[in-house]
Structures are given as C-alpha cells and as structure tokens.
Amino acid sequence: MERLKQRLEMAKKALATLQELGTESDSKVHRDATIQRFEYSFEAIWKAAKQYLNDIEGLDMGSPKAVIRACFQVGVLNQAQTQLALSMTDDRNLTTHIYNEPLAEAIYAKIKDYQTLLSDWLNVLETNTLNLLDDNN
Questions:
Q1: Is the dihedral of CA 60, 63, 66, 68 positive or negative?
Q2: What is the pTM of this model?
C-alpha cells in the first residue's frame, strides 16, 4: 500500500506540472513542453493505476491499455473515459516514437481533454484508496 501512495503522489505532482502550463499558446516551445509534460503525466498515472489494480483489486496488468481496460472493469473509468484513454494511449505512443509538425499539432489540440481525463482518473484512484485506508482504520 505504501508503494501505491508513493505512485499516487508522483502522479499528482506530474499532473500539476501539466496543468500549470495550460493549453492556450501559439508558441511551438509551449506546445512541445505541454506534449512532454503530457507524456510523463500519462506515464505516472497509468503506473499509479497499475499499482492500484495490483494492491486493491489483486490484478496484475502489464501494459497501459490492459490497465485502462481493467480500470473500466472495476469501475474506476466509465465507458467514455475508457475509449478516450485508449485513444490517449495511442497518441502518447506516437509522441515518443516519431516527431512531425502536423502530428504535434493534432495531439496538442487533444491535450486539454486528456488533461481532464487524467485528472478525473487520478481523483478516483486517490478517493478509492483513501476510502479503503479509512475503512481499514
């Protein structure tokens, strides 16, 4: 459970760095910084979800998409969030393997929605974890 709390805290800090940038700028540097912060925020949150599934639900998933599907199965994500999260995973994978201007612009345009999803996902993980800890005390 301690590892889960650490992962949730790391995810919260990573997401805060993304949120502080906002998504309204014409600067390519701002766009690229936002994409980079999206990448590591996504990583931190899916890994926190993986730890949650392992510690709380007894499930051991190895990939982001498997974690997302399992989060849907246990009620952490709803169907619409799951579909968006799966698309977000595809976009995240694209950002790390190739770089081109149209792709960067297309992904940047989606980051506001992704940021909301990441925040909601993390909030449910934190709330469920806190409720479980409270129930055990």
A1: positive
A2: 0.92
